[in-house]
């Protein structure tokens, strides 16, 4: 394990740190920067963690001295993982996902700023320093600097923390693929099985409109004719489409509920018809001469 040490000389100016070499990047892609830092003795001075000057804010404002985070770490003699993101030039996201993580608990103890590459960017750097520390007994240690493209194949924050039970909240500014390097249009793509205790799908347009007076309910005869012609229920995807493209759980649940509600209305109508005919039969039977 290689650890770098920053040692103040007492002038309370630049007190140690590093700049990486220039690293080629694709400005349309998102990259994650990280480094471990530990402070000892006192909290005099300020720790800095940043990237090269060729970036903008997430609101497209030029920043010529970008730092994901700077300040004092919460505790002395303790390692913290600092994480920052630079978004691709075409990324519309305005949210920041970086932060400072407690190396013991995995908890995110501070937020960090994200940045965005301009379309002219071709390279980047990772940099981290100790500045303005007048106490010559202080030390700041650096370990494990990393820079990687966010494409679903990068290590998770949890794995960087060596935190297998995943304490704390973790977020990703890019798309995530599990057993796939091409998540495509999906924020999370899984090429395999998923097991969960509960899945909540947010949706709108829940089909209770079926029960409104002006809803045009197909008759059973009309439904039968549609099935003969198309080979599936109205509004329900064809088998070929579902097999080729998959289905949306939220949309499919709405469709199935709509069919149940329509079927319920048809059953109620049939029941009323049966009751009416039964009542008519009973009336005729009573009116017959004995």
Could you explain the architecture of this structure?
The protein is an alpha+beta fold and 290 residues long. It folds into two domains: 3-190, Jelly Rolls (Sandwich); 207-287, no CATH class. It has four helices and 17 strands. Strands 1, 4, 6, 7, 9, 10, 11, 12 and 15 form a nine-stranded mixed beta sheet that branches. A four-stranded antiparallel beta sheet has the order 2-14-5-8, with no helix packed on it. The protein has a two-stranded antiparallel ribbon with strand order 3-13. The longest helix is centred in the C-terminal third of the chain and has 39 residues, at 249-287. The chain is elongated, with a radius of gyration of 31 Å.
């Amino acid at each position: 394990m290689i650890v770098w040490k920053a040692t103040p000389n007492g002038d309370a100016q630049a007190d140690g740190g590093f700049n990486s070499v220039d690293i080629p990047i694709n400005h349309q892609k998102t990259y994650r920067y990280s480094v471990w830092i530990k402070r000892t003795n006192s909290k005099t001075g300020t720790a800095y963690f940043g990237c090269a000057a060729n970036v903008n804010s997430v609101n497209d404002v030029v920043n010529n001295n970008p730092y994901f985070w700077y300040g004092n770490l919460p505790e002395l003699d303790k390692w913290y993982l600092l994480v920052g993101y630079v978004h691709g030039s075409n990324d519309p996201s305005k949210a920041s996902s970086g932060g400072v993580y407690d190396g013991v608990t995995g908890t995110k103890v501070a937020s960090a700023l994200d940045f965005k590459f301009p379309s002219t960017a071709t390279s980047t750097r990772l940099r981290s320093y100790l500045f303005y520390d007048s106490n010559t007994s202080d030390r700041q240690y650096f370990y494990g600097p990393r820079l990687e493209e966010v494409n679903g194949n990068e290590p998770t924050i949890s794995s960087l923390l060596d935190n297998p039970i995943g304490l704390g909240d973790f977020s990703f500014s890019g798309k995530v693929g599990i057993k796939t390097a091409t998540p495509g249009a999906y924020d999370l793509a899984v090429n395999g099985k998923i097991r969960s205790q509960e899945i909540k799908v947010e949706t709108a347009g829940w089909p209770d409109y079926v029960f409104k007076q002006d809803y045009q309910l197909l008759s059973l005869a009309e439904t039968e004719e549609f099935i003969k012609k198309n080979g599936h229920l109205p509004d329900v995807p064809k088998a070929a489409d579902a097999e080729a493209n998959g289905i949306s759980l939220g949309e499919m649940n709405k469709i199935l509920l709509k069919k149940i509600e329509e079927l319920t209305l048809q059953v109620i109508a049939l029941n009323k018809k049966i009751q009416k005919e039964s009542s008519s039969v009973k009336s005729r039977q009573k009116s017959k001469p004995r």
